[in-house]
Write a structure and sequence with these properties.
Number of helices: 7
Oligomer: single chain
Distance between the termini: 141 Å
Number of strands: 0
Strand content: under 5%
Structural class: mainly alpha
Length: 194
């Protein structure tokens, strides 16, 4: 009780400012004791490692974002190239159709003229002394052989007769689809004339 009496005397003689100062001192001592007890230590290497990890993650994210952007750019360029190739193929297809149509019409004209010449020669009585001997009328097969004497062209027609498509024939023979189409169109013209 002596201690309590001493404390009571001590506190009774102090004024309010002293109470606040004493309370602050006690709180400070408690905080210091708590900090010392719970102190784990400051590890500068670990802090530096965490900063480095964070920096590396940011750089990796930037690289990945850049990689995806480059891939998207390449895909866009590829799409543009495909669109350009599609339009070029469409133009070439239109031109090849026009050329095939023109060739077909020219072929028909030539065939008509040739037949007219043969008919006139057969009707005329040109003497053999002049050097003209009338020929027999050509059949459709004769005209096909005359026009398509190339073995590859004959092979194209034979493959078409077996039911193979233009693409299959072109791939098998290692030639363009346009050439196969042209030969087939010429072959059809002969069959129509027969």
């Amino acid at each position: 009780m002596d201690f309590l009496a001493t404390m009571a005397t001590f506190f009774s003689e102090m004024d309010f400012f002293m109470y606040v100062l004493a309370a602050s001192f006690v709180v400070g001592v408690v905080f210091v004791v708590y900090s010392v007890v719970n102190f784990r230590g400051y590890d500068a290497a670990e802090v530096a490692r965490k900063k480095q990890d964070k920096k590396e993650k940011k750089e990796k994210a930037k690289k990945e974002k850049g990689k995806y952007a480059r891939i998207e750019d390449k895909l866009d360029a590829f799409d543009a190239s495909l669109s350009e190739a599609d339009s070029t193929m469409a133009e070439l297809d239109d031109k090849s159709r026009a050329v095939l149509h023109e060739l077909d019409s020219k072929y028909r004209e030539l065939l008509l003229l040739y037949n007219m010449i043969e008919e006139k020669a057969a009707r005329s009585n040109v003497p053999a002394a002049v050097g003209y001997a009338p020929q027999r009328a050509m059949t459709a097969e004769d005209r096909t052989r005359r026009r398509l004497q190339n073995p590859r062209q004959m092979k194209i027609l034979a493959m078409a007769k077996t039911g193979q498509s233009v693409s299959e024939i072109a791939k098998t023979l290692g030639i363009g689809k346009g050439e196969v189409s042209l030969v087939l169109e010429l072959g059809k013209g002969v069959r129509r004339d027969a």
